[in-house]
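Deviations from the work plan: none for this task. Representative record:
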Amino acid sequence: MNHPQPPETSLEPLAPGQRLPESDRKEFGPEALAEIQAIMAKYPDKLAATLPALHIAQREFGFISLAAMKAVARAIGIPEGHVFGVATFYTMYQKAPVGKYHFSVCTNISCALRGAAQLLEKVCEKTGVKPGAGPSPDGMWSVEEVECLAGCGVAPCVQVNHDVYDELVDEQKLIEVMEACKRGEYRPWAQ
Amino acid sequence: MVAIRTKPDHHTYTFPGFGSEKFPNLMLRGAGDLDNWHLKVYEQKHEGYVAMKAALKMEPVAVTEEVKASGIRGRGGAGFPAGLKWSFMPKDTADRKFTRYLVCNGDEGEPGTFKDRVILEYNPHQLIEGMIIGGWAMQCVTGYVYIRGEFLWLIEKLEVAIQQARDAGYLGKNILGTGWDFDILVHRGAGAYICGEETALLNSLEGRRGEPRVKPPFPAVKGAFGQPTTINNVETLAAVPPILRMGGAEYAKIGSPKNSGTRIFGVSGHVKRPGIYELPMGTPMNFLVEELCGGSSTGRKIKAIIPGGASCPMLDEKDFDVPMDFDNLKARGSMGGSGGLIVMDESVCMVQATLRLIRFYAHESCGQCTPCREGCNWLEMILHRIEHGQGRMEDLDLIASLTPRIGMRTLCPLGDAACGPMDSALQKFRHEFEHHITHRTCYATGSRLLSTVGAH
């Protein structure tokens, strides 16, 4: 019941030998490829570049689609199945599109004791999206319920994209954070 | 452009008397000061890299002996003596057959634990120094720091700090003329609690799914990339420079017998001043909670405390005086864990609290072995129906029969970790579970822990 979300294309699995439609294929730019090559050179085994390369793919393509996984496999020169297995294991690789500002709300015990459940409801109400249900119609917001962010002493805490946590978030603070997002003070998701 | 934290930090790091003889400040020097992470500040203010220079003049074996003499026990959770762990590495350091690795575990994901981020935020050089000393003691070629993916800003900061150390000649080729090469690489995780387990961490480092490996072979024999590897927690490695600076025997005098040194405790939940406190091991729990943290923040009585991160069995009122070290907590039926205290007051429904914890374990189970994968999900389902007023009295017996079939029957301690809070809650607060079943509602109301949207 708690399995990671499958990638968006798995509703129509590819038959053996079938290729993704041209429009869905993804390829890394030369800079990203050079970055992945540099990472591969740092480790004794090129397989170790899988996780960093997936992070780069997420930055480049916005989320880890099946096409992005295939691009990673090609860039490193490892089986596509391995990349698929790794990408679906880790929750930070988003397998479906997210909004420009992605809210990760911790609802684990320490945060819950200080009102994280109520905060999550507030976040959903203000952004108009459900946790894990994709971005809002304008593509601005998405919300995810995550496990412990290691901000227990300053709970409840929220992470917007990959920025420094916002701590001790109450309703007032949440409005401030959302205003700051609208002003562009946070790094947008895919950058 | 390097991202440096610019937001104010709301943690409290100090208390009256901190830094004195009784409460030595070894790990949190300069915590709270956002400029403290620079190499220059660390060298000028905090005796930085003094211990490393001394260690590089010693024989590698002598360094390990010094750490052994300090008696420091691993701060990650299991409390295994760190010096002993180091000595498991292949002895023959002149033999070039092996490439030895040192791995630092910074995958801080245990609910209630938030100590490693403080070290990475304010004292990254203390960790780097500790890794260089550890690398020298075991003659490693590379140190990997595995940091959870959410800490992106800390990873960026640590990479700059490592570059500063490289520029100063403390990392790289022929360090300080010893002819020894060592470098540190930062590896970013991607959000999996299980990667805090050492062999799962190694798999993740190698670019695989974070599934724990079968032991033996232990990492000291066959670890990262098939080579001998030692894995230590961030806090353990950051404690090495103070040990070398003051000498192992002197360090062993701090704290309680067999549990030497200071430890960073993180207090969260219903207390007035939650935050990070560095205290000698063996400090009584009620001193920390009542005196330093100011007691209950809500005015209600404190009902239960989880003493070392979410995987430790809960303690109730009669055990609040326990001295916080590995042995004493074990004697009271709990664990030292990772030093994160979660304080719950009377308004917390223990069924909800346990359900929230078990949901975490069900979510984070890697799915490799059956008892944990199936058992945690079943525990969640049973608790879910009790919480929502559909429980039966037999469910309590079902839970009691289920936990011994998960604990100690899995490859890694995640299954045991789920059983700790479950068993203790059922044993100590059984009346709340029974009340839930007979009255179909919570025994304690006032703190709602579960949201009505999107239970994942």
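Chain A has seven helices and three strands.
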